[in-house]
Amino acid sequence: MDKDKRIRIIIGHYGSGKTEFSVNYAVKLSQMGKKVALADLDVVNLYFRSREKAEILEDMGIKVIGGAIKGSGMDLPAISGEVLTPLQDKSYQAILDVGGNPQGARTLGRYHSYFKDGEYDMFFVLNANRPETQTVDQVEEYIVKIQDVARAKVTGIINNTHLLKSTSAEDVMRGYNLAKEVSTRTGLPIKYNVCLETLVDELPEELGDNVFPIKLYMREEWML
Q1: How many CB atoms are closer than 10 A to CB 67?
Q2: What whole-number distance in Å separates Cα of residue 37 and Cα of residue 94?
Q3: What global pTM score does this model have?
Q4: Among 61, 91, 96, 192, which is most buried by a count of CB atoms within 10 Å?
């Protein structure tokens, strides 16, 4: 994680688990003693957003930036001006959780001046169990669309192939195999292979140091 750029943009199709990854990524950075800001730029998906867990994350020392309009029952697609703080203040490790389709990525356009080559990472979260991202052609097409709208380049792939709490080691490996094909086609590296903490010991050594264990912060205990 230390080798990743200070500004990390997390994108992915609806259902990819990009928000869960973003939250876990922020938590791990905070546990490493980093000053972390997590900005929720998802104005498309109104469910399971990182800002819904703001209190828990802030208790861990993470600055959470959500909607500009706050209040019980209010949920309007507005982005807080606070997003500029971690982009401008280089003491922050910044994570931007972005909407799960090309339209959602459009919010990044207003910040493109901060995304200079070599100074940011944009990670594409891939869930091979989603019907929209099950082939190399589908994934490559999606990446191209996101890049065009976001005015930034994807720099790495996150294999987050899952079925929520029912995820198996076989799911992770199926996603890894697809991610390898995408990597060969595009030249993008596989940065992490995400799995539940309980699955770490079931994964083959082939994945090396790229295994990224997570907790399901965004799923309530009663949810499947």
Answers
A1: 19
A2: 5
A3: 0.89
A4: 96
